[in-house]
Amino acid sequence: MLRKLFLPSSIIAGFVALFVGPEVLGRMISSFVTTDSIFYQGLIPEFILEVWRTLPGLFINVVFAALFLGKVVPSLKKIWLIAGPQVVMGQTVSWGQYVVGLLLAITVLTPFFGMNPLTGALIEISFVGGHGTAAGLAGTFEELNFAEGADLAVGLATIGIVSGVIIGIILINWGARTNRAKFVGGKHRLSEEEKNKLAELEDREQEIKPTHTTSMEPLAFHLALVGAAIAVGYVLLELIVLLEQYTWGAWTGTVLFPYVPLFPLAMIGGMLIQIGLDRYGKSHFIDREMVNRISGFSLDILIVSALGTLSLAVIGDNLIPFLLLAVVAISWNVFAFLVLAPRMIPEYWFERGIGDLGQAMGMTATGLLLMKIADPDIETPALEGFGYKQLLFEPLVGGGLFTAASLPLIYQFGPVAILIVSVIVTTFFLLFGLFYFGGKKAKATS
Prior knowledge:
Layout: H1 9-20, H2 22-29, H3 46-65, H4 76-113, H5 122-128, H6 130-136, H7 138-143, H8 148-177, H9 192-198, H10 218-246, H11 248-252, H12 263-279, H13 288-308, H14 312-317, H15 319-344, H16 349-360, H17 364-374, H18 382-393, H19 401-413, H20 415-445
Helix pairs in contact: 1-13, 3-6, 3-12, 3-13, 4-5, 4-15, 4-16, 4-18, 4-20, 5-6, 5-8, 6-8, 6-13, 8-15, 8-16, 8-17, 10-12, 15-16, 15-20, 16-17, 16-18, 19-20
């Protein structure tokens, strides 16, 4: 039953941990046992949960540091020619999530429910960012006096993934019936083995053939690379914090970067290492498959620990705001797919747009899954464009620099200021997509 939802095993394992922990099983049996009983908090003792709570903030750095290691980066011209419409569409949807989220927070959640204005960033953090970003920002939420935001974000990310798969498959069936999705079914039906693989979390890009090192264990070598990327990111972050401290921070009394987490800078560190290895002809030593295994393992640990330590009481106490955020996010994403995608993507809008919808609902793997169903034989450029899109998408939003900085930005400058910025950026990408790429579609059909 769960396989039909294409849920990754780590998410299922996280729900199992949540059920047998203090939030569900512990509450059920706490009235029947004494407080000193080993089962008072369920089957997972508190000292284990204390360790688990620290894991998301650590392993998110590994996931992002590995994001671009071992990837052959094509020229910007090639990326733009193939993935330009998907880049613009993805940016429009992501920045639009800030617009609708901040509008909801300013007009409803804060005045009527007393929610922290930081709630306005939860939609983009949870839906485009996914479980990794939501859990990885737990420390930032706590530092900004909104600790419950981390639980709400992880809960919203779960809603996003489940609804993304269900709504995506409904839309694919609708597209096939109305002849909008012309490649559904392909030349063969997906086997059970192929369906299982679709639920995996690792990347699907073409692997490069590595030259293994002879002086080091390959796993140790690749772990060292990831560690080096995190170290570079740490140095960059400390330098920026120091620069801010003696420049605009001292002049204005406003500081931002002490609240920014490490993981987006770790991603930049990985990019710098990859560029350096490419430049000196050493990138062939990196095995992208090995990097995927490290990243996949880290993401599994992150998701299980984040869901296992999720506070259902926090979600229950904020149930109506939680549901409002989910409904608004899903409505915006579906609207963008049905209304904006046909007007912004000149060719194969359905196959390309369904991938963007899946990613906007929770994670890259959901987008890959939906594209594989809509175009199983890869008869369109959707999959290639989706892969290239990440190079111009993830460094900024979807867990990138602005996603990580959005919370301290709202905290320092207020939700109205960040809403204005988000409206401007969303409008820019929207108009650019409608008139530049939409104009190409009009010319092609005329």
